[in-house]
Amino acid sequence: MRDLASGVEWKVAHSREGNEWDYIDLTWSPDSRWIAFADIMENRTQQIFLYDTGTKTRPVPVTTARLDSYSPVFGPGGKWLYFLSDRTFRSVQGSPWGARQPEPLLDKTTGIFALDLIGGQRSPFLAKDEGEPPGSGEEGAKKEEVNLDGIESRLVVVPVEASNYRYLSRARGNLFCLYSSLSLSRKSALVTFPITTDGTKHKWTTVMSDVRGFELSGDGTTCLVRKGDSYYVFAATGKAPSNPTQAKLNLGGLSLSVSPAEEWRQMFVDAWRMHRDYFYDPKMHRVDWEAARRRHEPLLPRLTSRWELDDLIGQMVGELSAMHTDIYSGDIRDATDGSSLGHLGAQLSKAEEGFRIDHLYETDPDYPAEEGPLLKAGVEMQVGDVILSVDGVPAASVREIGALLKNKAGRKVLLESRRIGVGGTRNSIVIPLTVSGFRNLKTSNWEYTRRLETEEKGKGEIGYFHMRGMSASNYAEFVKGYYPVFNRKGLIIDMRQNYGGNIDSWILGRLSRKPWMYWKTRTGRPFANMQFAFNGHMAVLVDAYTISDGEAFSEGFRRLGLGPLIGTRTWGGGIWLRSATRLVDGGMARSPETGVYAPDRTWIIEGTGLQPDMVVDNLPHETFRGRDAQLEAALAYLRKKIEEDPPRMPTPPDRPDKSFRYPVRP
Q1: pTM for the full model?
Q2: φ, ψ for residue 172 (rounded to 5)?
Q3: Residue range of the domain that includes 391
Q4: Per-residue pLDDT tens over the stretch 108-119
């Protein structure tokens, strides 16, 4: 904290559990004497503290460390402290029984609470006694001092149902916050709740829906809301703006003059500074970071484009010898008149009449949405068919079919084709794929053919699935791949070509489950009580493109004793990050922030990657011809393990004989 008049600075608190990029959850009292802030405790819960800027005594915790409390805000008279806290725990999922190993899911956990800072006050939401007029419980209250003695026992529940609230604030006599329902879109609405003793007014008011954020002015009179890429300014009355059109800021005439050379210098220095301040190692891997700046900064006047700035920053941060130091351009000028190619999802060769289909990329028939354009229902082309024309243009008139598919990705295209041995031609409407769509199609084909090979060579006893990445969306790949084969004797988890993410603990937690008890009904097969636990042998495939969290999962798989790694050395990125180091033009100079070390106090993964337990390389020519030596090695390993130690579920014992025989009287 800094006294602006005297220039004196002093430390108020130091967070031992947070980190440099955590949101500073802090608010000032109306008289600017007190601050309230939330900090993360050793048990990872958030606790709220009060600090007196007048006495400069040590901050005092005013909420429990057993529950998360956050987003504090002072009441109108500074006599109450409102905050959010997670204290309602109800699982949407009712039991562990059901498809795909259901887990408890907590929804609507957050309530709003008020803390009496003075002592002996009536709740600002409690109705007045008979004869007293209704109104706010704070307005007009006389000045009193904050009393910290026994403050933790002066907690009041605001009369709102627990839900999903964020970013509590206050203006005049209303509490403002964001509300969102549990959904994939996670859209938020700005809502308000009145601070009043009149129970008839205890209702939420929706100020604006689908908002991205909001701010209240310092005097509490004005509200700024971001909705999409638009901004709205209106009076903070707790109600929706009377005229949203007038409240919307017109940014059409806003312009900004930019000197590229000056902006590039600023971004260069910012990238250097953010690495200095947020790199996981304060000693910068023993690199003289000041000298690194001095070596590269003289090249700034020679830059001619934003791309060259990326190169210069990349060369500088490259001296740290750390992965995850990606450099992204932001606001750049680029051509808008370029062209893109559409793709039909096949390998084609030139024929006399047009282009012959030599290979079609087949995918899992259980997911028809993933089929290539030429295999869709109603099109159903085959290898050997010849494409004669595209949108009426003869295919024989061009050297490459791509010439007829320029700028046609995602658009309907008319193909005329002929099937060898069948008279006549046929017309089909197809929608060509984008470059990324074609890449996804080939990946789906690669996954499907690996699975079929596993089914065939494993004789139905070994399962297979591939993880393309480790983000939340990639969890679907685990669900689709694991649960259909969880009862197999062997399992291959393919982490090759995995671009990383952060869900390793989700998957490792499920694979680590072990059955210890079995259920047996009157009829049917027995089943384990640890639902969908795998009871066989497992192996993981890795390669040089097993990246980041793909590596963390693989090393965790091995260290937890779940099975070996087979393949080649992995990428070697073991310092994690959160992509928060943005540059002024929207670009990024990512600074790796969180290193990873093992229980034996050795740094792992970073710079070295993972050395597989069984090193097997897929040689280029063999791979081109369709052989997957790494998959073959995993199949051989699991077949041997199954033969030597066949997984078994114990058969149920005979039911007990609990009959009672009465003694026979002589």
Answers
A1: 0.90
A2: 55, -125
A3: 346-434
A4: 999 999 999 999
